[in-house]
Amino acid sequence: MLTIMNDSSGRDFPDAETGERLIDDQQFRELIRARCRPLLELVRGLTAGGVGELALTRLLSGRLLLESSQMEELLDEYGASQNRRWSRLRALVAALRNFARIGRTLAHVQRRLPTYRLLAVDADFHAATGERLCLVGSVVSAVATSLLEEARLLGVAIADIVPTPEDFAEQLPPGRLARNRDDRITTDASITVTYLATEFLNLAAESELLRTSARVPPQDYAHCFPDPVSEERLRQLSFRFHNLQSLYDTHVSRTWVETSDPELSILRGHASVIYHLLKIATDLAHYYERHVSPQTGDGLLCERPVVDTDAIMATLFAYAMAFSSDVLDGGQRLSQHILRRYAEPGRLEVPVPSYRGFHVRPSNLVARIVAHYGSEVQMDLDGKLFDAGSPLDLFRANETINARKRRWLAAEIARVHPDQDGVLEPSAIAAAVLAIVHRLSGEGKVILYRQPLEISDEIGRREGGVLENTVAEIARLQATGQLDIRTDLTVTFIGDKRVLADVDVLARVGYGEDGFGNNVVLPKELSYLRR
User: Fold this and answer.
1) What angle do CA 427, 433, 437 make, to 5 degrees?
2) What are the beta bridge partners of residue 513?
3) Does 11 have pLDDT greater than 60?
4) Helix/strand/coil percentages in the chain, nearest 5
5) 14 or 318: which carries more pLDDT confidence?
6) Threshold 0.85, pTM exceeds
7) Residues 6+ apart with CB under 8 A from 408
8) pLDDT score at 298
9) Is the peptide bond before 452 cis (omega within 30 degrees of 0)?
10) At what angle do helices 360-373 and 497-508 cross, to 10 degrees?
11) Which of 239, 242, 213 is nearest to 226 (CA)?
12) Which of 46, 214, 295, 506 could form a disulfide with 144 if both were Cys (CB 3.0 to 4.6 A apart)?
């Protein structure tokens, strides 16, 4: 602290409640005027042209961000947010800093957008960015005006010398420097490429928040806080996309792989744009939650509003979240295309799902793994090929699987009940069939899902003896879901090794089911299947 508060006689005294040494308002005003003069002069210049006429360039927003950050730090050092007289100034400085950062990011995106070469989206992203930049410029101008008024109310004197708009004009010549550096020599960058494309797909699967938020109608924006939208969730997601961009720059940028494959830099562009949009979304969510939310805001800016909340929420949802979702979809398609080109073919032999083969759940999970990577994978069963990306095609494989099970089981039945001479009565045949079924169950050859079994009235009346009746009855019990035949049948998946690795993980956890068809928790590696 510079000094402590004093009474009219100049004697120092502490706060009566806390014992802390205090600074008096006059001395604090002089401190703010001296230390924060650059920001106050800057905002005076911004308000000279009137609210709504501000061209928010990267130079201007960067300067505002620098000066407001320093002023905010000084106000926080003296506890301004806890003081009735100075807390509104602190809130206005924080708002200016927040929107200056948003403006700088928008200006960056607008300037660099052509170089990202994004896949096309339905809406005009470039025009929307320009519109939002103008909007944020008007917000910064309005906040600057309020901040200047508040400073005057507090008695902070402001110098007459102010910067002019020309000081922050961004007149840049077109073009860029020649790309004439040699490629970097690294380890196999293609391995990193497949990792990055795979990680983008995983992030896309975990970014349902963006897709959901993009579809929210304006009247429901406020209801999205704090679930599913919050500053914390958006910041965590933006960090992961930033990490993806950093990995690319470290391991792929300026390598021979990047030079020979132009799609890689486009993928980096998608990750970078999503990161910048999520930064904007995070700052907007922060402003709403911290300052204007009825549940969590501090009320200072709610009582005397400076910013149009509807416009801010529209920028968050209809611009930042919506275009993040669109760019994410394009990056997902691009990642799948890259993985198909970098695919390493392989084969994987795994057991058939123990519970009723490839019924709905196992077939859907396998197909979703294939769809996640966008690769072509086939399942080989007895020389027949099935499309592993189609749940219906996998489900069709059950016909072959069940036929193999019945052929195997016929041999087992013949083993435990050899053919006997003579014709048995229907009741004797029925008793023999039940005895065989329960013996096979005891040996683990069949699994009983229902007890007691509902035996058909046809048992013993069919043509043939015990063997034929047992095979027919077990087939009926299997078709009606009362039992299943347990064998060591396997299938072979053929395709991209990355897809096969995940199919192998799925097979090791019973394709998401236990032996009785109950769902089991999928491992972390398959977290994208939980959504």
Assistant:
1) 145
2) 519
3) no
4) 60, 5, 30
5) 318
6) no
7) 485, 487
8) 77
9) yes
10) 150
11) 213
12) 46
CB distance 340 to 473 below 8 Å: no
Q: Tokens at residue 130, please?
A: 């320009």
Q: Are 204 and 332 in contact (CB under 8 A)?
A: yes
- Sign of torsion, CA 107 109 112 114? negative
Above 60 in pLDDT, residue 4?
Answer: no
pLDDT digits (tens, 9 = 90+) for 106-138: 999 999 999 999 999 999 999 999 999 999 999
Q: In three state form, how does the secondary structure of 127-182 look? A: HHHHHHHHHHHHHHHHHHHHHHHHHHHCCCCCCCCCCCHHHHCCCCCCCCCCCCCC
Taking only the tens place, the pLDDT of each residue in 203-221 is 998 899 999 999 999 999 9
- Write the CA distances from 346 to 369, 393, 509, integer angstroms: 16, 21, 21
> In whole angstroms, what is the distance from residue 454 CA to residue 437 CA?
12
Helices (H), 261-344: 262-287, 300-303, 309-314, 322-341
More confidently predicted of 332 and 299: 332
> Which tokens belong to 67?
């000066």
Structure token digits, residue 254: 């300026």
139, 64, 58, 134: which is closest to 100 by C-alpha? Answer: 64
Residue extents of the structural domains in the chain: 24-166, 185-342, 347-529
Closest CA to 103 of 64, 142, 160: 64
Q: Which pLDDT score is estimated for 12?
A: 45
Nearest one of 241, 306, 239 to 98, comparing CA atoms: 306
Beta bridge partners of 495: 346
The yes or no reply on domain 185-342 and CATH 1.20.120 is yes
Asked whether the beta carbons of 397 and 405 are under 8 A apart, the reply is no
Task: Give me the pLDDT at residue 68, please.
Answer: 95
Q: Is 441 exposed, middle or buried (0-12, 13-18, 19+ CB in 10 A)?
A: middle
pLDDT at 296 (0 to 100): 86
Name the residue type at position 27: Q
- Distance, C-alpha 300 to centroid of its chain: 33
pLDDT at 112: 93
Residue carrying structure tokens 């704090």: 226
350 phi and psi, to 5 degrees? -135, 160
Single-letter amino acid code for the residue at 421: D
Those residues with Cβ within 8 angstroms of residue 520's Cβ, 6 or more apart along the chain or in another chain? 509, 510, 512, 513, 514
